[in-house]
Amino acid sequence: MTQPPAPSTTENLNVTGFTPLMTPRELKAEVPLTDAAERTVLAGRRAAQAILSGEDDRLLVVVGPCSIHDQAQALEYAGRLAALRERVKDRLEVQMRVYVDKPRTTVGWRGYLLDPDMDGSNDMGKGVRRTRELMVAVSELGLPVATELLDPFAPQYLFDAVAWACLGARTAESQTHRVMASAVSAPMGFKNGTGGGIKLAVDAVVAASHPHAFFTIDEDGRAAIVHTKGNAHGHVILRGGRAGPNYAPQFVQEAADLLRAAGREEAVMVDCSHANSGSDWTRQRLVWRDVLGQRLAGQRAIRGAMLESNLQAGKQSLPADLTQLKPGVSVTDACVGWDETEALLLEAHEQLSGRAALATC
Ligand SMILES: O=C[C@H](O)[C@H](O)COP(=O)(O)O
Ligand SMILES: C=C(OP(=O)(O)O)C(=O)O
């Protein structure tokens, strides 16, 4: 039940109400991380860390919808990806984008976590419960969950089920988000800013690797100061910027050089979507192949790649009548469809297997 704010002359002047929310402990009791899901999270984190540190020469592939908006469709996608993951696992570590909290350039639907009914009702209690159920269910398939860290309190409810996380282009420069990243138990990627600046992402890797303290809530929803150790597994994600794509060899090398100069591991992931594809899903395949080519040519700094992919290709606008939504089609950025996703991952697997075979000759 939403409560109006207490009358005051100086605060809450722009607030219309407060709705109580369950605590992280209550939600975790209701939707526990099962043993099978926990095994997937731990194995997914270990694999990502080994790849990012260069101990494991596989490619970390973060692939999945730009945003989740339907539980059943997300699970249909996850089932297909879990099966594909098994087929390519000797060369690719595949983790699924379960992105539920969308940063917007101005305004727009903010994601399944915040508005699961997509009608502006902002039932975040339902959103966080449904998101947790989904993350546990995906993990139970043996498929590690990858997500974006955006809302400051959401990690308390969800991140025990997350294998890999990142800060997006709009928050990688935010101190609030960098210090939060220093607390995250999963490896964290940091995107370059929307302007394209790579140094900004390297600064984020450095900032998040340090210990910090910040305001948050504890498991019981009490206000608390959290003290962190720092995240040792930060890496840069190149996603292009206002000046255009930044996946070409000179940008990858620039990111690697900046990381090395900052005393960090030269670990770079390339996002094949966003400004690297000019938001044109048909160009994601060109970026994917180019990045794979760089890797095959010996660029060891490339440790990962990201694809925005869904059951169906393209995107749709949110219709006024939600029953008109087309199943399996993105409601945010345009995605590669399932058939092409499968083809691109199998192609990469084959090419990387060839190189591995050559290396052992
Ligand atoms: O990944 C999704 C979008 O690029 C990001 O959320 C920004 O979207 P917008 O520019 O449509 O608001
Ligand atoms: C919002 C995203 O990307 P970026 O931060 O690069 O715009 C995303 O990956 O969903």
TrEMBL record:
**Matching SUPFAM superfamilies, A to Z?**
Aldolase
InterPro entries (alphabetical): Aldolase_TIM (IPR013785), DAHP1/KDSA (IPR006218), DAHP_synth_1 (IPR006219)
Record's keyword annotation contains Cytoplasm: no
Tell me the domain of life.
Bacteria
Return one Gene Ontology term, BP aspect.
chorismate biosynthetic process
Q: Name one Pfam family in it.
A: DAHP_synth_1
What does the record give as its pathway? Metabolic intermediate biosynthesis; chorismate biosynthesis; chorismate from D-erythrose 4-phosphate and phosphoenolpyruvate: step 1/7
The residue ranges of the DAHP synthetase I/KDSA domain are 49-344
Extent of the signal sequence: none
**What catalytic activity is recorded?**
D-erythrose 4-phosphate + phosphoenolpyruvate + H2O = 7-phospho-2-dehydro-3-deoxy-D-arabino-heptonate + phosphate
Enzyme Commission identifier(s): 2.5.1.54
Enzyme class, first EC level, given as a word: transferase
Q: Which GO terms describe its cellular component?
A: cytoplasm
Query: What does the record give under GO molecular function?
Result: 3-deoxy-7-phosphoheptulonate synthase activity
Ordered alphabetically, the record's keywords are: Amino-acid biosynthesis, Aromatic amino acid biosynthesis, Transferase
Which NCBIfam families does the record cross-reference, listed alphabetically?
aroFGH, PRK12755.1
To which protein family does this belong? Belongs to the class-I DAHP synthase family.
Q: Function, please?
A: Stereospecific condensation of phosphoenolpyruvate (PEP) and D-erythrose-4-phosphate (E4P) giving rise to 3-deoxy-D-arabino-heptulosonate-7-phosphate (DAHP).
The protein's name is Phospho-2-dehydro-3-deoxyheptonate aldolase
What is the originating organism of this protein?
A: Deinococcus radiodurans (strain ATCC 13939 / DSM 20539 / JCM 16871 / CCUG 27074 / LMG 4051 / NBRC 15346 / NCIMB 9279 / VKM B-1422 / R1)
